[in-house]
Amino acid sequence: MKLHIRKGDMVEVISGVDAGKRGRVLKVLPQKDRALVEGVNFIKRHTKPSTKNQQGGIIEKEAPLHAAKLMLVDPQTEKRTRIRRKRLDDGSYIRVATKSGEQISEPS
């Protein structure tokens, strides 16, 4: 399924415990409708000592959020916005912020 967000986008969480927090999208998981956002939705992972992690213990890391809880941040106004697709003369599409009309991504 195609999502409204891509890797590298600045997004804001609109519901849940982390509502209002902003971060950059690190990874998109379209099969599960989820995205990994930097600095949002931390979980605690209990790990055993290993060669990679000599000490072990409790590690905090980001967990994926459902894409419906994320909304793109308009680069011009710094507010949440929906997106539209605009077709260029050469037949390619770009993503455009609904509120300001600002281009969000390069042609694809």
Describe this protein's structure.
The protein has 108 residues and is mainly beta. It folds into 2 domains: 1-73, SH3 type barrels; 75-108. It is built from no helices and 10 strands. Strands 6-3-2-1-7-8 form a 6-stranded antiparallel β-sheet, with no helix packed on it. A two-stranded antiparallel sheet has the order 4-5. A two-stranded antiparallel sheet has the order 9-10. The chain is elongated, with a radius of gyration of 17 Å. The model has no long low-confidence stretch (mean pLDDT 91).
Task: Throw out a few tags for this protein.
single chain; 108 residues; mainly beta; SH3 type barrels; 2 domains; 6-stranded antiparallel β-sheet; two-stranded antiparallel sheet; 0% helix; 43% strand; elongated
Class inferred from helices and paired strands? mainly beta
Number of domains: 2
CATH class of the largest domain: Mainly Beta
Write down the overall geometry.
Answer: elongated
Low-confidence stretches: none
- Percent of residues in helices: under 10%
Biggest sheet statistics: 6 strands, antiparallel
Strand order of the largest sheet: 6-3-2-1-7-8
Assembly annotation: single chain
| CATH domain topology of the largest domain | SH3 type barrels
Beta strand % = 35-45%
End-to-end separation in angstroms reads 17 Å
Offer a concise description of the structure.
With 108 residues, the protein is an all-beta fold.
